[in-house]
Write a structure and sequence with these properties.
Length: 296
């Protein structure tokens, strides 16, 4: 498979049309069609279902789309790293992160580096731990910021000095908002919206989050789960349920109709910035790591 042809395939998958993709790629339609047929012949799989006005991906086509995008991302990242030299540090640093106000600690380092090295850029990917760990393991990220209880034993890491506090986010006129802190029994029978990764026992058998709820976890009325908290906040505003989440991620100030109440006993999570053991960093990523170690 040629990188060029994979890019052609991705363009067709994006546009759902050989005609639109050929215009985007500045190729003739017969040339693009021939390249795609040669790719199918090379792989021994039908990748596209060709209709009169559009194309759709076969199951095998969906698999190739995901893998092709990972391959192209890796090629771009490798080319970017090779352009950088010690004397002229430039390139892109790839960082994945869960949602946390503690990321402010990293933004200070990012600003410092960009002030000194105009050729360094940052690619920040927000996502949950499942996605970040997968991309880190594949080499698509240089670093990932993971929130406990995600296991980090197979990585090198630094623990950030701040912690995130767990609590309940709800409408200000909710009965529960009258309380200053929320205990186990306060949540009984209430419609709850929880982080999917933090209630998944497969992610960590030693999760402080799961231990906080104890045996009550299996009896909770969880009406929805979320990946990133913004949409969960919209559900809370609509009165769908009470969000179990981290403080300072949603607007709960005076101009918002949401409020936050901490869990009690207090439940906090540490954050770790991790990277693959033995990973060979580009000069710019190495510089970022040195700054991390200096600060933390």
């Amino acid at each position: 498979m040629e990188i060029r042809v994979l890019k052609y395939f991705l363009a067709v998958a994006k546009e759902n049309s050989i005609t639109k993709a050929s215009n985007y790629l500045h190729l003739t339609q017969p040339t693009l069609s021939r390249q795609l047929k040669d790719l199918e012949k090379e792989l021994g799989q039908k990748l596209l279902i060709r209709g009169q006005y559009s194309v759709t991906l076969t199951p095998e086509g969906h698999i190739l789309r995901q893998r092709a995008q990972e391959i192209i991302d890796m090629v771009d990242k490798t080319q970017d790293e090779l352009k950088s030299t010690i004397d002229n540090i430039s390139g892109t640093i790839y960082i994945g992160s869960g949602e946390s106000h503690t990321i402010k600690l990293l933004t200070d380092i990012i600003k410092e580096i960009q002030t000194q090295y105009s050729g360094i850029k940052f690619d920040i990917l927000s996502g949950n731990a499942f996605d970040l760990v997968e991309k880190l393991d594949k080499g698509l990220l240089d670093f990932a910021v993971l929130i406990e209880p995600i296991g980090i034993s197979k990585y090198d890491f630094l623990t950030l000095p701040d912690k995130d506090r767990w609590g309940v986010i709800m409408k200000k006129n909710s009965p529960l908002a009258k309380l200053k802190r929320i205990k186990h029994f306060d949540l009984k029978n209430l419609p709850l919206i929880c982080s999917k990764q933090h209630i998944d026992k497969k992610m960590s058998q030693d999760s402080k989050f799961i231990k906080w709820f104890g045996e009550d976890l299996k009896n909770l009325n969880i009406v929805a789960t979320y990946n990133l908290i913004y949409n969960a906040g919209l559900m809370a505003q609509s009165g769908i349920g009470y969000v179990i989440g981290l403080d300072k991620l949603l607007n709960t100030m005076n101009n918002s109709n949401l409020t936050f109440r901490p869990l009690y006993p207090i439940l906090e999570s540490k954050l770790n910035i991790v990277w693959k053991k033995g990973h060979i960093f580009s000069p710019c990523a190495k510089l970022f790591l040195e700054k991390l170690k200096e600060k933390f």
